[in-house]
Amino acid sequence: MNEKNVPVGVSARHIHLTEEHIAILFGSGYELNVLKPLSQPGQFAAEETVAVIGPKGRFDKVRILGPARKASQLEISKTDSFQLGVRPPVRESGSIDNTPGITIQGPAGEVVLERGVIVAARHIHFHTKEAAEWGIEDKQLLRVRVQGERPLVFEDVIARVSDQFALDMHIDTDEANAAGVASGDTAVILDK
Fold first, then answer.
1. Main-chain dihedrals φ then ψ at residue 62, nearest 5 degrees
2. Residue 21 and which of 3, 66, 116, 168 are 20 to 30 A apart at CA?
């Protein structure tokens, strides 16, 4: 396979909320306001933030990503999990069975999630056209080199393929710090 470059996006802690939970946290009929668009079409960072509270600690001003989802989900790094006092598994987004819960506080109310805290598995979003051109299939595990201050090869990077996606590799802040990379840097797929 010829060398294929992929832009890197570093995901800090953030939360996805259902319409029901947005209404509880911000008030009935509330709609999120777009702060800035994200790399994936139709996705955005909202102006709104919430507090998340675990057994040992809390984070204030956790950014909400929109639009609303079918299930609320908090994505944090392993380092974040120690401060909150939760032990989330590494999972793909949306895979929240058997995960710890968290309390969410907004200006109008509070939600107690029984599940939904994960450390997001590193992954690359591929548009179906790019995936076909590069011979990559959905859910395929890839080896990827990031060229930061401390170059690093990531194993088991999940390929996520959809005609709704734009090319972007997503890693969390722990992974980015380990390699010394930032959003906008480049990664290279080593093999399939």
1. -80, 125
2. 168
Q: Which two tokens stand for residue 142?
A: 């890839």
Burial class (CB in 10 A: 0-12, 13-18, 19+), 31: middle
What are the residue ranges spanned by the domains of the chain? 4-9+122-191, 12-120
The per-residue pLDDT for range 2-56, each reduced to its tens digit, is 678 999 999 999 999 999 999 999 999 999 999 999 999 999 999 999 999 999 9
Largest separation between any pair of C-alpha atoms in the chain: 53
Length of the chain: 192
Q: Any idea which fold 4-9+122-191 has?
A: Barwin-like endoglucanases (2.40.40)
170 closest CA partner among 131, 118, 119, 122: 122
DSSP state of 50: E
For 32: left if phi > 0, alpha if psi spans -120 to 50, otherwise beta; the answer is beta
CB 128 within 8 A of CB 162: yes
